[in-house]
């Protein structure tokens, strides 16, 4: 019987370490990827092109967590706008809620962006 528990404890320790290493690896990968995108955007030229807003979308996620024996609900909302440039290429950018509210599908104007970072849209 003692042999079974010794083996179980070793398996549990290895499994716990592997899960910890996996979670830690995912966190490191996400941070490195975010820093790489941020750096690429900073090193990209700021471009202003003629574009049309062709679509908008919203992504909402809700979370539940508990503290002090109470359940708390929360949500996060992300706003996206897709622009089509003169070449026919489409680019989707994350925009803030105010910009999202000011944009309408079909708007034509000057889109300014840097890499994958949306900077502004001036209607014409």
CATH architecture of one domain: Beta Barrel
Number of strands: 5
- H and E string: HEEEHEE
| Spatial arrangement of strands, main beta sheet | 3-2-1-4-5
Oligomer: single chain
Give the C-level CATH assignment of one domain: Mainly Beta
Distance between the termini: 80 Å
**How much beta, percentage-wise?**
over 45%
> Residue ranges: pLDDT <50 for 5 or more in a row?
none
Question: What does the main sheet amount to?
Answer: 5 strands, antiparallel
Helix content: 25-40%
Total number of helices: 2
CATH topology of one domain: OB fold (Dihydrolipoamide Acetyltransferase, E2P)
Integer-rounded radius of gyration: 23 Å
Structural class label: alpha+beta
Task: Label this structure with key terms.
single chain; 124 residues; alpha+beta; OB fold (Dihydrolipoamide Acetyltransferase, E2P); elongated
Provide a descriptive summary of the structure in words.
The protein is of the alpha+beta class and 124 residues long. The protein has a domain at 44-62 and 73-123: OB fold (Dihydrolipoamide Acetyltransferase, E2P) (Beta Barrel). Helix content is 39%, strand content 47%. The protein is built from two helices and five strands. It has helices at 2-43, 97-102, and strands at residues 46-67, 70-85, 90-95, 108-114, 117-123. Strands 3-2-1-4-5 form a five-stranded antiparallel beta sheet. β1 (46-67) and β2 form a beta hairpin. It is elongated and about 75 Å long. The N and C termini lie far apart (80 Å). The mean pLDDT is 90.
